Amino acid sequence: MAVVTLTKENFKETITNNDFVIIDFWAPWCDPCVAFTPTFEAAAEKNADIVFGMVDTEKDPEIAEYFDVNKIPGILVVREQAGIHAQQGEIGAPAFDEIIKWARDYDMKTVRQYYKDEAGKS
């Protein structure tokens, strides 16, 4: 699957309509960010069942600010609309593959129970 450009206009919809999203926070002036892009794109090709999206922090700084991303490159893994892992700083392909594997295997029962409990409070 191709990498999706995430913006203010499509970010919420992308997270809401997909169970598994991996987001790369980057900027065109950031050499490590640009160097990571081929790794991110290759992972997207290998994992067609996951939505891979990139947020340009220069064009949409509000998204990065909302998620408190203050160092780029930054990765956010979202499953079932819950952020389950955040990674800031440079990583290589083997480490990124391990993050994806960990995220696939992550037991979402605790997250689901939290949402259920929160819904019951209202």
At a glance:
This protein is of the alpha/beta class and 122 residues long. The chain is built from five helices and five strands. It has one domain (4-121): Glutaredoxin.
Give a structural overview.
The chain is α/β, with parallel strands linked by helices. The chain has one domain (4-121): 3-Layer(aba) Sandwich (Glutaredoxin). Helices cover 45% and strands 24% of the residues. The protein has a five-stranded mixed β-sheet, sandwiched between helices.
The helix/strand order is: EHEHEHEEHH
The fourth-level CATH homologous superfamily is Glutaredoxin
Structural class: alpha/beta
Distance between the termini: 38 Å
Across the major sheet, the strand order is 1-3-2-4-5
CATH class: Alpha Beta
- The proportion of strand residues reads 15-25%
Number of strands: 5
List keywords for this structure.
single chain, 122 residues, Glutaredoxin, alpha/beta, 5 helices, 5-stranded mixed β-sheet
Topology readout:
Blueprint: E1 4-6, H1 11-17, E2 20-26, H2 31-46, E3 51-56, H3 61-66, E4 74-79, E5 82-88, H4 93-105, H5 109-121
Parallel strand pairs: 1-3, 2-3
Antiparallel strand pairs: 2-4, 4-5
